[in-house]
Amino acid sequence: MALICIVLNFINIDWEITDTASGILIVIVLGVFQVSVLEFPIQTIATLLIGGERRDDKRAPCDRLTAILNYNLLATGKDDILECFEMMYKAYVGNLSPNVSAVLLSATNDEKLKEYEIEIRDKYRAILYDDLYREGQAFARGEYQHVDCLHLEHVWAMYADVDRNVFMNDYLEEICDRYAREFMVVHRVSRVLKKCGQYQDLMLLSEGECEAYSYCDKSYYGRSAREPGESLFHTSEDASNIKERKFDYTLVLDADNCVPRGGVFDLLSIAAAHPERGIIQPSIKLHCDSGSTMFMHLEAMRQSIYEPITNAINALFEQSSFFGKALIKNKVYIDYVIGSKDHLIERVPVDVLSHDIFEAALLKPLYAGSTFLLETPSTNYVTWNIRERRWNTGNILLAMYFWKNAFGKPMRWLQKKLQRSKFNKTKVRTETKLDFVTSYIVHSSLRQMLIKPALLLYIILEYFVFLRNRYASIIIVMFCALVFPMFSTCNRKNYKFVILETMASILLFTPEALVGCVRLWRAFYANILLNVEWIPQRAVEEDLKCSDPFLSSFKHLWGYSVFSLVAGVLVVIFLERAILFLAMLITTVVLPIYAGTTSLTTGFKRCKPRS
Questions:
Q1: Any idea what the Cα angle at residue 95 is, between residues 93 and 101, rounded to 5°?
Q2: Its domain of life (predicted)?
Q3: What is the pLDDT of residue 569?
Q4: pLDDT value at position 563?
Q5: Helix crossing, 444-464 with 579-589: angle to 10°?
């Protein structure tokens, strides 16, 4: 199909009045652009053929499997800690079982914040103890209507044959105390590998390792290496509690992830039926409520509309991406990704940012679409743009490892020349070869990233090339990307949402030809000069909520708007045929208005900061 598109592009050019160099260049650019977009109609056809319904995952008994809920946090303020603990407490209480523990794995630097984490842990422990004690009393009296149904099944049922007085005197306090102490906090010593390193060290601690042996070799990692033999975690009662527990699975989570009631048991039962899989990846649902912004609702709507395509592609390939939030089998991960003291593997690059994409390439996750985790989408366009820039930075670094000769070597040469003494030469200890399916899945974000510069180049070159059917190419591309996928996702129930999402996508993604290229350049620049500035997403969102949404949007986007306004005036005066360029500029001029409007709630009110 790509070859056919290139031939048609060649035929569509009027070569008699078009400069040869410009004509060849636009054929190449259009080829790259169309190849990137062609996967949308191919995915749509696949969905129509095999069906986009949610599959029922094979399950097996999981009574003997153990899991630890791992929330990862680098706190910059007390609000971060409170939000994370709230999510962790709900997840733990909603999946309470003798086989399930919960730990906040903290990389927080500030000593006062670390003390605050311990303080909040103790408060939640007290709440849990009191609630369980009341439940236990109700259970002993036979008042099951006052007992949580999941707790009744997984906690109290095993004491059904114990005498009431014996249960109250000899068992209840010990039960409450045991479950309260499984709600834990540990503080990591090193920052190597960031979040990925956090749960790697947690797995090693669970296996009985207290001292670092991975990522310690300076010949591979230079200044990024940690000292061999240093402690993995600061000494604490909770660290001792985890040591040598040999948990079967780790459910890796971010601070804003919510685990539904019983969700851990669903995931473990799927994992029990697929013991060879290193990652069980649940679907990620974007959660909105009445206080959420219009941008959040649009993001959740977009995800819901395209769910059939996601279901079909993952079913077709029998593997999926790893979204950084999933159930990981500890033994498989350690044996295949980390290695032992005597046989180090260390497949994940020490400086990688998009670790989840790399781990997906290594472990080929199983997509468990019948269960899910909840996640809060970006509050507004500005925070979405900042997050995309961070992901672009990670994707560029990732490309340096996937294509180490074609892209990695030139980038390393530039880094060495420009960073000078700051340059830190690193390499991967164990490299991984990817098959076709894995390559297609893990390179998806890289392909989507390249669409933006290809589109901008086409819009610019289109003015200098004479085409027989000037707008045929872009119309076909828009049809393939926006209209044709609706054949597999649109129905009588959601057609209104599909129309609304399509209009919003045009307003959101048309400026991406310009904004996306600037974002990509900033990510490239950050990689070259080692100037990766990481701003916690929550901090940006809360800052925007405290100010006027329109002023905040203009503050962050005024450069794009002013440039597009000036360029638009010049296009109208001097260029007659630059309709596509003008359309891009007009949507970019109004981008701050779009961003400000969608930062409001559905009742057109300002989104309030979390209390």
A1: 80
A2: Eukaryota
A3: 93
A4: 95
A5: 120
